Amino acid sequence: METSIPRVVAVLGRGVLTPGSPLVPADDLGFTRGDGCFDALRVVRDAEGVRVDHATRHLERFARSAAAMGLPPIDVAAWTGLVHEAAEAWEGEGEAVCKVIWTRGGEFVASDPVGVALVAPVPGSCVPLRVAALTTGRRADAFRDAPWLLGGVKTISYATNAAAKREAARRGADDAVFVSSDGYLLEGPTSALVVARHGLLDTTPTAHTGILPSVTLAVIAEHAAAAGREVRERLMKPEELGLATGVWLVSAIRGVCPVVELDGRPLPFNPRITRTLARWAGFAPAEG
Amino acid sequence: METSIPRVVAVLGRGVLTPGSPLVPADDLGFTRGDGCFDALRVVRDAEGVRVDHATRHLERFARSAAAMGLPPIDVAAWTGLVHEAAEAWEGEGEAVCKVIWTRGGEFVASDPVGVALVAPVPGSCVPLRVAALTTGRRADAFRDAPWLLGGVKTISYATNAAAKREAARRGADDAVFVSSDGYLLEGPTSALVVARHGLLDTTPTAHTGILPSVTLAVIAEHAAAAGREVRERLMKPEELGLATGVWLVSAIRGVCPVVELDGRPLPFNPRITRTLARWAGFAPAEG
């Protein structure tokens, strides 16, 4: 498979390989059952060289995902080396994603887990989003005492997240936001939710909701605290957003994307807060 | 990876390959996001040769899974050829599973889907099961009007199914049965539920429940109809099982397994109906 897109495939214990060549055994449980975890880190190459943003935080979350699934433990030091080796080997300019994946190994014959880091450019920049609200079919507290539902765990079983993005596109929207069956906003398929209102910043609570703890949100919250502000965790309903000053979906890869429409209803767009949040998250401000 | 376990890897458009060698690109969406579908067929090699049970039914369900996910269409004739080629190449004796998998192709660079058929022996025979009831966190009608939840679609995003089996083992049980948040029995992580009561056979309804339509159950229902009996679809609560004559988890691979205990409470075991159901499903009767 020839391509001009610069990308890197690196394997734990082996280093950088030729991208595009087959790597995963067909009976690897990560492939046959989505039985593995992942994380996604931002890679930036600019005049100062290449860097990986918040590598330790992402790899520690990666390790928590593996532990929650009973996968072999993640060696954060070894993965840090692999991620930086992969980032260094990436020949592109600008922004890329480094996706790390760790699986349970062979389904039919016991074999080592696949541990891989993939680097590829990020398609497009953050733009104002029209978003469709899609139910998860679960109440906001459905993950309480049900660890087998893998709430807050970044598994590679992402088929419903991918299907939600396709459903959003089918409705003419750019992205989705999940809503619980009892009507509370949760998170995007690949992002966390932030709402500004009455001079405060709110996000949605993790734990019982099954929402993935967002590294980007944690970084924003620390900068907010340093600026004397707080990011509160709060369950919110879509109808509350009409009173908001601004609404965003944030992630390590796309940064801080303003949500300007929910199910066809316009939401307020605040360029000033967008710039502040993007700066706190380590991104150039989104245009819009 | 050397092994003495006989198994086969065959690829759509290429045929039988050496098992154990890497086959799947690391950025295949089936691997990075569980964004693909699968099905599992029973292979039997005995004195009469090798056969694949109900290949067309399984591959037609496989095609429906692909269509529900917006994957490239399944060519049932081509897959039938691949499945039989893989089964013929299997050098084992007795029973095996043929798992077919179909993915969306490359995440970072557009590439062909992976289409693969894997054959490997089935570990162990069907034994009486002690089962743990685990909530899905969703009501029994949660999949109504929410196709992005992929109810009834056999995706390779099976991490919660695998986690449910681990939770069952942690509780000292052999398998799990999912229960809706409003208290209805649904299905096992890899099997369908059948209950005999008052001389009737009941199973749980598909469609709004998200339950996968079981090929084995359809075969049983046809034999039942030929014998002048009906398999009814009905929502049931665990507490009703105390009045049952027998309870089973059925699948194409393990056959008809009696459930003899639910959450530590014994359930009646009926060897006669077990033998009948197993014969209808095309299996030797389970021992117990």
From TrEMBL, chains A, B:
A Pfam family of this chain: Aminotran_4
A molecular-function term among this protein's GO annotations: 4-amino-4-deoxychorismate lyase activity
Keyword Magnesium: no
Class of enzymatic activity (EC top level): lyase
Known EC number: 4.1.3.38
Keyword DNA repair in record: no
Alphabetized UniProt keyword annotations: Lyase
Family note: Belongs to the class-IV pyridoxal-phosphate-dependent aminotransferase family.
Protein name: Aminodeoxychorismate lyase
Organism: Propioniciclava soli
